[in-house]
Amino acid sequence: MQSLTSSSSGINSKSLTRTKIQSNRVNPNQLVIRCVYRFDSANAAANTGTVRTNGYGAPASYNSAGHVGASRAEWQSSCAILASKVVSQQQNAEKSGGGAGNITAVNGHKTTTDLDLVPKPLTITDLSPAPMHGAQLRVAYQGVPGAYSEAAAGKAYPKCDAIPCDQFEVAFQAVELWIADRAVLPVENSLGGSIHRNYDLLLRHRLHIVGEVQLPVHHCLLALPGVRKEYLTRVISHPQALAQCELTLTKLGLNVAREAVDDTAGAAEYIASNNLRDTAAIASARAADLYGLHILEQGIQDDSSNVTRFVMLAREPIIPRTDRPFKTSIVFAHDKGTSVLFKVLSAFAFRNISLTKIESRPHRNRPIRLVDDANVGTAKHFEYMFYVDFEASMADVRAQNALAEVQEFTSFLRVLGSYPMDMTPWCPSRED
Ligand SMILES: O=C(O)C(=O)C[C@]1(C(=O)O)C=C[C@@H](O)C=C1
């Protein structure tokens, strides 16, 4: 398995470079037939998109009533998905001999004698982003095999082809350039907090959140066979993993240097490939297996119920539903200082919509707001982008009304995605 990297020096043995990414452009077959079906944008209501932009995004795709209408691009790609389904059904029919012999004309319409060849009615899931027909879903993640992100990709899409990438940015690009169908990226951990980089990338890129998975993270201390804790002079891992194990490392008497690397499994691989006998890695049991390391300690995270939340990203949004719990993620900014924040949040409170997460990040386009007071001087206020997750589907009128109200107070609002909540049973002690 190769991993995607952004290094400009070309392809290395484990990595696909950004150059390589660019050479693998969009499959031209995806947009062959655009209008096989009429696509009802009002019904399909691909309810994610930009409400207004201030230099970040595409033109508005919400209508004036605050309801969402599919943009032309969304409409076209949905048509393409439907069209490719039809083409694939026709191809299947041809492959399995469903040619002239099996097809007879009844009342002027073609019909078939084999039920398998009868075109299936389209269902709601046909409107969801789908991989190329017949192909395995390709899911990009940051790290190397054995990383928790790989496990998250497997939890989200059990039979997927997981594609390792050396950076989060590369995972985004892999989806944008059709090398991968989805990206699975960590956004927050119950101990270590938010993975800020991914919040910034969500804003910079145009992908849609189509799902979430919460993965119990069970860290192990790994070293080469024969190495004992007393020999160690340093512990290396992903900064999040180091943060999640800080107290336990100290309790174990490991007052050694901590060094951050790109991912947990990469730390294990590094120790193995450089035969480092004074270094341990914090990584998964699977990484120990893959890279031939021994487990010195298990379950070294500071809290046994350590969980990382990942989001799944796709080029197209999914159709929001109301028949199961959904979450919606938005990002907004306003130009009147933080006093507006209360008003924005009350739009949800008044409708009994629970917020599950609030995150703020620097407003990179306008980081500082100066307020002059002739008598006292100049106040320098930091400006923020606010990310909010709330427990409602964009198909829910309460959510639509709340966003219409939020729009009143904000200078920028974008729906990052409306997607099913991870409701899998709680089993924090499971090893991943
Ligand atoms: O390094 C890994 O194994 C990752 O998948 C990354 C990551 C993260 O970014 O938080 C994922 C889960 C754990 O919280 C630790 C590290």
From TrEMBL:
UniProt subcellular location: Plastid, Chloroplast stroma
Entry annotated with the keyword Transmembrane: no
Keywords (A to Z) from UniProt: Amino-acid biosynthesis, Aromatic amino acid biosynthesis, Chloroplast, Lyase, Phenylalanine biosynthesis, Plastid, Transit peptide
Database matches in InterPro entries: ACT-like_dom_sf, ACT_dom, Preph_deHydtase, Preph_deHydtase_CS
Organism per entry: Anisodus acutangulus
Single GO MF descriptor: prephenate dehydratase activity
PANTHER family from the UniProt entry: AROGENATE DEHYDRATASE, PREPHENATE DEHYDRATASE P PROTEIN
Region Disordered, residue ranges: 1-22
Top-level lineage group: Eukaryota
Domain ACT: 329-420
Pathway(s) served: Amino-acid biosynthesis; L-phenylalanine biosynthesis; L-phenylalanine from L-arogenate: step 1/1
EC nos: 4.2.1.91
Enzyme class label: lyase
GO BP field: L-phenylalanine biosynthetic process
Pfam families: PDT
UniProt name for this protein: Arogenate dehydratase
Domain Prephenate dehydratase: 138-315
Function noted in UniProt: Converts the prephenate produced from the shikimate-chorismate pathway into phenylalanine.
Cellular component, GO, one term: chloroplast stroma
Catalyzed chemical reaction(s): L-arogenate + H(+) = L-phenylalanine + CO2 + H2O
